[in-house]
UniProtKB/TrEMBL annotation:
Keyword line: Hydrolase
SMART domains for this protein: LYZ2
Protein name: Flagellum-specific peptidoglycan hydrolase FlgJ
InterPro entries: Glycosyl_Hydrolase_73, Lysozyme-like_dom_sf, MGlyc_endo_b_GlcNAc-like_dom
UniProt GO molecular function: amidase activity
Species lineage: Bacteria, Pseudomonadati, Pseudomonadota, Betaproteobacteria, Burkholderiales
Ranges for domain Mannosyl-glycoprotein endo-beta-N-acetylglucosamidase-like: 7-159
Organism of origin: Paraburkholderia youngii
Amino acid sequence: MPKHRRNNANVGDTYVSNFIHDHLSTAQNIQRKYGIPAGVVLAQSALESNWGRTVSGNAYFGIKGRSPNGKSTTFSTHETVNGVSVATTGTFRAYSSYAEAADDYAAMLKHNARFRSAFLHVDSIGFATEIARNHYATDPQYGSKLISIIQSRKLDQYDVR
């Protein structure tokens, strides 16, 4: 997952508000279609892209490889290998829009048996905990970072009830 982002705590409230405003409808549509809480969709895309500030090729969710349409983008990242953060370059799925990225992200989670347990949770915190526990990212702190974003920005208020 991309680590070229800055600490989300340093991102100004206006930019965060704009990010949420711009992507909330898509996040809620993803929840209705796939069952992934909107707060998780927003938190992951915020974490992976530094609230959209360091996104390349609309790779908001940091999914490695090529997208279903064959597009990819390459950028610097960090991976945790044997407990050590290592700088590297990665190839990530690229998209034409946030909505396309979110739909592919959701389909990937929904159809990957590794993340099946996450779908037992309808709340953002439970869902985020499960995808982190099942190694969405190599960062051992990924789950706590996601939960921190969800809680500090109250993103679970956007979950469709």
